[in-house]
Amino acid sequence: MSKVSVYNMEGTQVGEIELNEAVFGVKVNEHLVHEAVVSQLANNRQGTQSAKTRSDVRGGGRKPWKQKGTGHARQGSTRAPQWKGGGVVFAPKPRDYTIRLNKKEKRIALKSALTSRVAANKFIVIDEFKFEGIKTKRLVEVMDNLKISKALLVLNENDKNVILSARNVPQIKTALTNTINVYDILKYDTIVIDKAAVATIEEVYA
Question: Where is this region: Disordered (predicted)?
Fold first, then answer.
């Protein structure tokens, strides 16, 4: 098992913790990590974009002029794409962009992402993350103590004070152990996590 240091909110090391190799020490599967990111981004798309093709645009049923003898190019409808007010060529239509991964692939991708952060020394464990009130300034101080500017803050419990304190800091995102995902782990570079959350993740994914 690999060991990482445990810090308090003042940035002082207060101990060490052993990480479960089955979760934080797996072989990194870059392909599945990529698939997980692509899947998440695709699934976030609404797929509601729509425009009208020439068959959807109202009007244009009458031939604008006779076929021959006018000097104009032949035209069959004023709703063809080359006309103002005409339809759109290959117009986008509502569609489902969903890309699905099975449960085993999702687990491997998540464990690979977590392992990559541990290997890069971007995995910071806090003994306890508690605020007495909603204090954004205090949260920024804690991040400064840990020498971190951009991080994914993983909590074991839905702590309203911590979540609301971080809400107005653009470089910090909070997540619970059951909402962490590969995209956020890679995007926010450094993971700041409390000891209880580490235990929960190991229990669920080991």
Answer: 43-85
Cβ–Cβ under 8 Å, residues 115 and 191: no
The token pair that represents 119 in the structure block: 């290997």
Distance CA 179, CA 198 (A): 14
Widest CA span in the chain = 92
Token representation of residue 103? 């449960």
- The residues, ordered by sequence, that sit 6+ positions from 172 with a Cβ below 8 Å of its Cβ are 139, 143, 150, 151, 153, 166, 188
- In the predicted structure, residue 128 carries a pLDDT above the cut 90: no
Which pLDDT score, from 0 to 100, does residue 1 have?
59
- Asked whether the whole model's pTM tops 0.85, one would answer no
**Closest by CA position to 26, among listed 118, 122, 111:** 111
CA distance 188 to 177: 16
Residue 148: exposure state from Cβ atoms within 10 A (0-12, 13-18, ≥19) = buried
Beta bridge pairs of residue 155:
176
Tens-digit pLDDT profile for residues 96-120: 999 999 999 999 999 999 999 999 9
Question: Are residue 144 and residue 131 in the same domain, yes or no?
Answer: yes
Closest CA to 24 of 109, 105, 118, 104: 118
Which two structure tokens, joined as six digits, stand for 27?
């072989």
Cβ pair 6, 188 in contact under 8 A: no
Domain that holds residue 80: 47-96
Contact of 153 with 172, CB cutoff 8 Å:
yes
